[in-house]
Amino acid sequence: MPVLQFPENFVWGVATSAYQIEGAWDEDGRSPSHWDTFAHTPGKTRNGENGDVACDHYHRWPEDIALMASLGIQAYRFSVSWPRILPTGGRKVNEAGLDYYDKLVDGLLERGIRPFITLYHWELPQTLQELGGWPAREVVDHFVALADVVSRRLGDRVKDWITHNEPWCTSMLSHQIGLHAPGWQNWLAALRAAHHVLLSHGLAMPVIRANAPQAEVGIAPNYEPAYPLTRTEADLNAARIWDGYYIRWFNDPLFGRHYPADMVAYYEAQGYLPDGLDFVQANDMATIATPVDFIGVNNYTRQIMSGEISLDQFQTAANPNPNASYTEMNWEVYPNGLYDILNRLHFDYQAPKIYITENGCSYSDGPSSGSRIADTRRIEYFQSYLAGIHKAIGNGVPVAGYFVWSFMDNFEWSLGYSQRFGIVYVDYETQQRLPKDSAFWYGDVIRQNRLEIE
Ligand code: FCB
Questions:
Q1: Distance 432 CA to ligand 1 centre (A)
Q2: Which CATH number fits domain 3-452: 3.20.20.80, 3.40.980.10, 3.10.129.10, 1.10.238.10?
Q3: Which protein residues touch ligand 1 with a CB less than 6 Å away?
Q4: pLDDT tens per residue, range 279-289
Q5: Got the DSSP string for 269-337?
Q6: Active site residues
Q7: Which residue's alpha carbon is at the smallest distance from atom 9 of ligand 1?
Q8: pTM of the full structure
């Protein structure tokens, strides 16, 4: 039985996000976010489901973090809800909202769990959406104000900061594909949004560092690498375009390479950029390239690309792999994709340090007899991805930690409660939490700092 030992000080954590678990959507001065508006709009989410109650974590957090501690979890990546803290943007703080995160942070530290804060995991105050949302440059300053307010209050205790979760989703999935709030289908708006997200990240980093001098700050893009179906020129080209659209458009500017020229040309040829990159102002690109302390990698799957590509018609798993297994998201289990991305971030982009900030799978296993939940496929998924990470570390890739998505089953955005990613099962009727087998398995991995592959 191979045993994979992880480096000393490797951080083992779990991840969630505020809207997906907190509920209490209108309590203690929280205003609606654009996700509340979207989820309350008929037809936008599965069965009209929303995050009004979710896992009720806003009220149950002491129980939840006690469970984390009992499993031996070392770090918890969570996001702050912007409209709880600054209900209308700007700087007018809702103290009750900020107090909530203050208590959560203290509770974590008391239990020896290291907090990793994500500032933006997709909850824009609705008032800022009405100002134009991310496509409007004004929102950038509002985000920097959020970073300032939160890091001023929590920076004495929180050392690990993530500005944005998945800029591709905030921009493309939300403004071009339209599956996430605000549900637009407008290329130019999406590309403007991408720029403003990146810019706000670059501007927020020095603010966080000033308020929390010991802090390490990074960003967590999603990486879904593309592979050509065959080696034909058309398939290689399709993979290149997907890579440019999904990965390089975000990663290149972060590492000082500007927007990729081949993609600017492609978007111009498609008519997506009628006035070129006119939304890029002097110094923006230097700001975006402000060195990060780490890159957060969110990775679940990959794409297999072929033929004439249309990013407007794109469907995931358009070229199913007959030899692979798929999770209930219809995402291919492909641990080599994460391995490849890690190597690329190190050898090509020279990322200073890497955390896997999200990795996990949706399987609906629930309690069958008694309270035991035998989610064997989830354990196998984690084993295979962790083996890839271990191999990358062996190549010299500086991976410093790993966060399971997710600590518990939660609101999976437009798919509502149909997808269960948790290592802890949530019974949404009773709000009972039941650790799945994978949670106990993960606890063992953490205690031993190593993985035994069967
Ligand atoms: C990522 C999101 C996270 C969750 C997982 C399944 O794209 O960051 O909130 O929805 O996917």
A1: 22
A2: 3.20.20.80
A3: 17, 20, 165-166, 169, 222, 298, 358, 405, 412-413, 421
A4: 999 999 999 99
A5: HHTS-TTTTTTPPTTHHHHHTSPPSEEEEE----EEE-SS--TTS--TTSS--TTS-B-TT--B--HHH
A6: 166, 358
A7: 17
A8: 0.98
